[in-house]
Write a structure and sequence with these properties.
8-stranded mixed beta sheet, single chain, Rossmann fold, globular, alpha+beta, 12 helices
Length: 727
């Protein structure tokens, strides 16, 4: 009897523990920010060199340090190109901690720099040089003044950079430095940008080498007319104040000039930008002719963009082409590409309703339209002039996809080169013979492939391990569309609880961003989307939506937002709630919404301007009045305040505080240099005046990303609890 009891007990415990081991784990916020496998694998520090025959990447080997490896694209051979121990100035010193590196055009040198805070990688700190041929590591340039924006000359003999707001060059062989500008100061910026240019025109390097390495073209910004703002650091006894220039709508901007300085003589020639001083210069680029610099001139209203060709020796300029949009705005793009024949260039425009590529000659004559159709070209990645082919990314397969295509310079139908449906982030080799494709979709982590120019897969470089997610209750992301009352089709995606029951009623959380031209409904992996999986696991349906003014469709939709921010976002969020209420498994009285930045603006707008549709809302770092945001972004969509007073008033979340009925959580970083804390402070004041109850969370010392230490874990636990308790 005892043996039978022992046997049955053993069976019970084996069965019990087998059951437990088969149960999926529940996601936690702590999991999301501790398990790096959720981000997927990537090649860190990927750089092409040897004219595209090889690429390098960085491997962190833990206690062994950081090593740069090279990969030969033809043989597939991999080997260390620079062990960490070579990055020592002296044998007794610790190796340099690698932050950022760049190959010289001839692949003989590697430049190492630190990085500075910016929208994307911005070189800074002390500059080091490694001679690959002689295996010599040394300091190239150092100073007590801030250094930034270091770049090799095309002939690989010199490095140009900014120090103390002035332009410098250094000869690599001799180490001899040469200062090229002398008027740099706190208000005069040579070779780099003020806050608003960098943020809203997405540009970091404020200068460019000529193709023959003989001269440098650079921006000169006099930011003294711009108003100053202050960010307060509260962790000191008497507070520390950080001041910087931040023009708001209607304010004065920096005065911009474009100079070309001769690298040998130091003589600067100023380009003729016209008589109007209140303009923007969002892009400059040398043509294939080193004597001709292209300059894009944009008026203050941002509805008239001109391409100028400037003679670098005389400064004389001529108009080559222009884009006008009197009833909206012109988007600045990076597709401008000059062909080596010194006669033709590629230009991008949405003049036919969709962003497409056009071929021009240097006189400004349009030779032909390269791409055509009801799709949007995202960017030009490479041009193979020998085969007269252009490689570009677009959403031709559908608005939620991003693919690589090739097309003849003469025009015609594009050829799809990336076959798997989803999102393809492509990095082309300089010789246009290979590309690296980092592919994912909404339900699959990244895989990185090396491909030939025709799209054929050469090898799989990195395969992300999905097993890291197999232990969790992950639900598939499902894509769908629905029609608004006026027949406009809107894009959306849905995550249902894993144990979804068609007969039950579920609360819904709507996820949105909805800024003009943005895109949230994409078939791409998102680590942030795992928080939505966590919410689905505890019983919510998660719906991500794009309103009609978002990107990927005919520009006539996007430009509905002109002088009217907030209106269509709220309209389509109402339409989303109406559609969700029509679904038998949705509890129409329990619909919530959340978003960050512009998404915070539209979330706050939804609960205050459509209180009958949304029961709870979280707004993180929201703009609450467009008068509080920067002038380049705001005026692009809203025009000047004196030209659109009604629009500024109607778009301000502040003016709807008295409508609050549901539960509202307002979150902001107190050191936000982008959307100032002022936005939330003023909304709090309005809600108090309206005698409304709400919750607020502020984060001292955190900027727009609200990051650092345990911050994100605390933040996402806070938001999780808010929805659990209020929806």
């Amino acid at each position: 009897m005892k043996k039978l009891f022992s046997f049955l007990t053993l069976i019970y415990f084996v069965t019990f523990f087998s059951y437990l081991s088969a149960q999926p784990k529940s996601l936690t916020v702590e999991d999301l920010y501790s398990n790096h496998a959720f981000s997927g694998n990537s090649l860190k520090g990927l750089k092409w060199f040897d004219n595209g025959k090889k690429f390098s990447y960085v491997v962190n080997s833990g206690s062994m340090g950081i090593t740069i490896y090279e990969h030969d694209v033809l043989s597939g051979e991999e080997k260390p190109v620079l062990p960490v121990n070579d990055l020592r100035l002296n044998k007794d010193e610790k190796p340099l901690q690698l932050q950022n590196y760049t190959w010289s055009p001839d692949s003989r040198y590697i430049l190492f720099t630190g990085v500075l805070p910016a929208r994307r990688t911005k070189s800074g700190g002390t500059f080091y040089i490694y001679d690959v041929k002689n295996k010599k590591f040394s300091i190239l340039a150092e100073s007590d003044l801030e250094q930034s924006n270091a770049r090799f000359s095309p002939d690989s003999r010199k490095v140009g950079f900014v120090r103390g707001n002035n332009m410098f060059i250094v000869d690599i062989a001799t180490g001899r430095e040469k200062q090229l500008t002398y008027d740099g100061s706190e208000t005069i910026l040579n070779g780099h940008f003020d806050w608003v240019y960098e943020e809203e025109f997405s540009i970091i390097d404020g200068w460019e080498w000529s193709p023959d390495s003989k001269s440098i073209a650079f921006w000169r910004l006099d930011q003294s007319p711009e108003p100053e703002v202050e960010l307060v650091d509260y962790d000191s006894l008497y507070f520390n104040v950080h001041k910087y220039r931040y023009p708001k709508p209607g304010a004065k901007n920096a005065i911009v000039k474009i100079g070309v300085v001769n690298a040998e003589s130091g003589k600067t020639t100023w380009m003729d930008l016209g008589r109007e001083a209140d303009i923007y210069i969002p892009r400059i680029r040398f043509t294939a002719d080193p004597n001709v610099l292209s300059v894009q001139r944009l008026n203050r209203l941002q509805n008239h963009l001109e391409l100028l060709f400037c003679n670098v020796n005389t400064g004389a300029s001529r108009l080559v082409l222009e884009e006008k949009s009197p009833d909206s705005w012109i988007d600045v793009q990076d597709a401008l590409t000059f062909l080596k024949d010194k006669k033709r260039f590629i230009w991008a425009s949405d003049r036919d309703g969709f962003n497409h590529l056009y071929l021009y000659d240097y006189s400004g004559h349009q030779i032909n339209q390269i791409t055509k159709g009801s799709f949007v070209v995202e960017d030009v990645l490479a041009v193979d002039e020998d085969n007269q082919s252009v490689y570009y990314t677009s959403n031709e397969r559908g608005r939620r996809f991003m693919d690589l295509y090739s097309v003849s310079l003469n025009g015609g139908r594009g050829k799809l080169l990336t076959q798997q449906e989803g999102d393809h982030s492509v990095n082309f080799s300089p010789d246009a013979k290979h590309f690296i494709d980092r592919y994912s979709n909404a339900n699959t982590l990244y895989t990185t492939y090396l491909c030939g120019a025709a799209g054929e897969k050469v090898s799989t470089l990195l395969q992300s391990d999905m097993s890291s997610l197999n232990d969790y209750n992950i639900s598939p992301v499902e894509f769908f569309t629905f029609k608004a009352s006026d027949g406009t089709t809107l894009d959306a995606s849905m995550i249902r609880p894993r144990d979804f029951d068609q007969e039950k009623k579920y609360p819904v959380i709507v996820v949105n961003y909805n800024g003009p031209g943005s895109k949230s409904v994409s078939d791409a992996w998102s680590r942030d989307g795992l928080w939505h999986q966590l919410l689905a696991e505890i019983g919510y349906i998660i719906v991500t939506m794009d309103c009609r003014i978002t990107g990927g469709r005919n520009s006539e939709y996007k430009k509905l937002a002109y002088k009217n921010l907030g209106y269509w976002e709220v309209n389509d969020l109402k339409e989303t709630a109406k559609y969700l209420r029509s679904l038998p498994y949705v509890d129409g009285e329990r619909i919530g919404i959340w978003g960050w930045s512009y998404g915070g603006y539209s979330s706050a707008s939804a609960i205050l301007r459509a209180p009958e549709y949304y029961k709870a809302a979280i707004a993180v770092a929201p703009v609450t009045s467009w008068r509080f945001y920067d002038d380049i972004y705001t005026e692009r969509y809203m025009s000047l305040p004196e030209l659109n007073e009604k629009g500024y008033e109607e778009s301000a979340v502040l003016n709807y505080a008295e409508n609050l009925k549901g539960k509202f959580l307002l979150i902001h970083g107190m050191a936000d240099d982008n959307v100032h804390f002022q936005n939330s402070v003023e909304l709090v004041n309005r809600l108090i005046d309206a005698n409304k109850q709400f919750r607020v969370m502020y984060y001292p010392g955190r900027d727009h990303s609200i990051y650092g230490g345990m911050t994100r874990i605390q933040l996402y636990n806070l938001m999780t609890d808010f929805f659990k308790n209020n929806l």
